[in-house]
Write a structure and sequence with these properties.
The chain is mainly alpha-helical. It has a domain of 88 residues. The chain is 52% helix and 0% strand. The protein is built from 13 helices and no strands. α1 packs across α3, α1 crosses α13 and α12 packs antiparallel against α13. The chain is globular.
Length: 288
């Protein structure tokens, strides 16, 4: 994923890259964290801010940002999503001791379910695709072995939907684009077979005017679905030539005057999360 982000940074023209970098820089608070749609710093948006900065080759006050990350210790008081973000932020700054990294991953492992996947609620017997995917990203970023691939395959199999996608939990009739993309990335990185019909399902979510819808019949495409679908399709080595120009137009059409990106055509608010997804989409669309 980081390679795709760097490709986007390399491909952007000077003025546009500068405007996006200025937006990302504007989201950094004095305490060293990045803010989202509220003024307070948040680990979730800090992760996206750091990844945007890396893609654009930006310099940062490393000690100040590290101080914000260090404030969260080993993550014992964090919810699941923010614990994942802490682990991944530690990997970006590489300033944590091996003992601290192990402690954070141990805390994360406490969210593992009986089926060996993950859920954001401790004690759940049933895991879900997206929380398992988030745990995988944290383990991968910290250079740790994630899990036995066969056990993860066992978790994913019942989430396959009759329409050919993946739902977050077993027993649902229709897949969603971000979850199907997450399942695809998990399969690809763990060496599990990815069915060609999964790629067909993802391609069918692409709208003629550009962008991917989150579910069949969604009112409009969105940037999260577009970025995740394009990344999954790229990992599957599916040709994107037939949708490249339309998806480029869609992604670039969500660039706003302040230099950031919003999530949909009707959302005027920008943040580091959607700016990250724009860079990920662009990185998977630009030709090598």
């Amino acid at each position: 994923m980081s390679a795709r982000l760097r490709r986007a940074g390399d491909a952007l023209s000077g003025p546009m890259a500068g405007a996006i970098a200025a937006f990302v820089r504007s989201q950094l608070n004095d305490d060293g964290g990045f803010r989202g749609r509220a003024p307070r710093s948040d680990l979730y948006y800090t992760l996206y801010g750091l990844d945007c900065a890396a893609a654009l080759g930006m310099d940062w006050p490393r000690e100040r940002v590290a101080s914000f990350i260090d404030r969260h210790g080993e993550g014992a008081d964090l919810d699941y999503v923010h614990l994942v973000c802490l682990a991944r932020c530690l990997a970006r700054y590489n300033n944590a001791s091996p003992a601290r990294r192990r402690a954070v991953l141990s805390e994360l492992t406490s969210f593992r379910c009986a089926d060996h996947g993950f859920s954001r609620t401790r004690g759940d017997a049933q895991s879900n695709v997206y929380d398992t995917f988030l745990a995988f990203l944290a383990f991968q970023d910290l250079g740790e072995v994630f899990s036995d691939a066969e056990r993860i395959a066992h978790c994913l199999k019942p989430c396959r939907t009759p329409d050919g996608g993946f739902a977050n939990y077993p027993g649902l009739d229709a897949g969603t684009t971000p979850v199907t993309a997450a399942a695809t990335v998990l399969q690809a990185h763990l060496g599990l077979p990815v069915e060609a019909t999964t790629g067909d399902w993802l391609m069918a979510r692409c709208q003629q005017a550009g962008g991917f819808e989150a579910t069949t019949g969604a009112p409009m495409p969105d940037l999260l679905s577009t970025a995740t679908a394009l990344h999954a399709l790229s990992l599957m080595q599916r040709p994107l030539a037939s949708i490249r120009e339309a998806c480029l137009d869609f992604a670039l059409g969500l660039w706003r005057e302040n230099g950031g990106f919003s999530g949909t055509a009707v959302d005027p608010v920008t943040d580091c999360e959607y700016t990250f997804h724009a860079l990920l989409a662009l990185g998977n669309l630009v030709e090598k």
